[in-house]
Amino acid sequence: MKINKLSTQRMEDIQSTFGLPPLCAKVLAAKGLANDEIAALLQEPKLSDPFCANGVKEVADRLYQAKQKKEKVLVCGDYDADGICATAIMVDALRSYGIDCGFYIPNRFSEGYGLHENTVGLAKQKGYTLLITVDNGVKAKTALSFAHTMGIDVIVTDHHSMDEEVTCLQLVHPTLMGESFTTLSGAGVALMLSRALIGEKKEHVVLACVAAIADVMPLHKETRAIVKLGISYLKQGICPPIRFLAKERYPKWDEMLIAYQIVPKLNVTGRLADMVNVNNTVKYLLSTSMEEIQHVAKQINDLNEKRKVMSDDMLLKAKTLVHEEYRFQLLFDDSFH
Fold first, then answer.
1. Is the distance from CB of 241 to CB of 285 less than 8 angstroms?
2. Residue 209: CB partners within 8 Å, gap ≥ 6?
3. Are 187 and 170 within 8 A, CB to CB?
4. Residue pair 71/129 in contact by the 8 Å Cβ criterion
5. Whether 36 and 167 share a structural domain
6. What pTM value is reported for the model?
7. Residue 130 sits in which domain range?
8. Which of 149, 153, 125 is nearest to 137 (CA)?
C-alpha cells in the first residue's frame, strides 16, 4: 500500500466545509477526494432521470410501438444473480406497461451463456417480433445476425465489455449511456428502462441493488444510489422474494448480508442447472403470493445447502489428489460438478 502523508489543512477544510467529525474528515482526506466527490458521497440517494441516459428514449419509443401494435416481446436473460434480477425487472416492467411478454434464460450446461440462434428460431416460431437481451448480448454476433435475417428486431441491454461493434436495432450499454451510468450492472440497465416505462417501482430497485452487489459493481454514481435505496427499501419490508431468502426472520439489511446470504441463493439455481430450471427463479421473484414465496424460498435455501455439501465433498476429494512435489497442479475428477 502506498501511504500518503495527510494534510492537516485539508482535513480541517473538509471538517469545516461539510460539518463532519474529525475521523470522518481524516478518512476523506486520506482518500484524496475533491469536494464535489465528497458531496456526492454524503448526499441522499436519488436516482437520475432515465431519459438522460443515451439510448433509453429510443428503446422506450420502440416499446411504445410494440404496445400499440400488440407485438409479442421476449426477454432473453442470463443465469447468474445479475441476469436473473435483470430478467425479472424487465419482464415485470413490460407486463405492467401492457406488453405481451415472455422470457427465457438458457441452461448453463446444455446451451451456455448468451443469446443463441436456437432461441431466436423458437421465438420466431412462437410469434415473437422483438427480443430484448438483459445482462448479455454484446457477444451474440451470430444470433443477432440470424435474428436480422428472420425479421426480428433485437434490443441489446448489457454491461459486459465490447470487443467489436454490436449490430442490433438498439444498444443500451453503460459505456454509452453517459457519465452517471458507467458503473451499472445488467439489472441496473434494466432498471433504467423500467423507470422510463412505468416510473420507479421499489421492488425493481431492490433487485437492481442485489444485482449490483452480486456483480461487485463500483459503488459510485447511479449504482451507489441504487444500492443505498435498495437497502433502505429492504428495511421497509419491500420485495418479499428477496427478504425470505435471508437466514434470520428480521435481518439487519446491509451489503454484507446481501452478498453472503442472498446472492449465493440466486446463483445456485443457475449453477445446478442439471437439478433445477433457473427460469423458475424469475417466476419466484415475480410472485406476489406469500404462500408460494415462502414455499419456493425454502426450496431455494435447501438447494443452496445441498450445494455447500457438494462443494465440501469436492474439496475433500481434491485434497487427496494433491501431489506435494509439484508447485502447480490442475485437479480433476469425474465426480466434480
1. yes
2. 226, 227, 229, 230, 231, 233, 234, 258
3. no
4. yes
5. no
6. 0.92
7. 50-238
8. 153
Is residue 234 in a domain? yes
* Same-domain pairing of 75 and 224: yes
What phi and psi, each to the nearest 5 degrees, are found at residue 133? Answer: -85, 145
Q: Are 19 and 117 part of one and the same domain?
A: no
Task: List the CATH number of the domain containing 143.
Answer: 3.90.1640.30
29 and 59 housed in the same domain? no
pLDDT in tens, 94-153: 999 999 999 999 999 999 999 999 999 999 999 999 999 999 999 999 999 999 999 999
Q: How far apart are CA 311 and CA 207, in angstroms?
A: 27
Q: Cell for 167? A: 449490430
> What does the block give as the cell for 286?
415475480
CA distances from 234 to 51, 56, 98, 206, 231 (A): 26, 27, 27, 7, 5
Residues 88 and 187 placed together within one structural domain of the fold: yes
Note whether residue 169 is domain-resident.
yes
Helices (H) and strands (E) in the chain, counts: 16, 5
The answer to whether residues 88 and 282 touch, using CB atoms and an 8 Å cutoff, is yes
**Number of independent structural domains in the chain:** 2
Q: Is 85 exposed, middle or buried (0-12, 13-18, 19+ CB in 10 A)?
A: buried
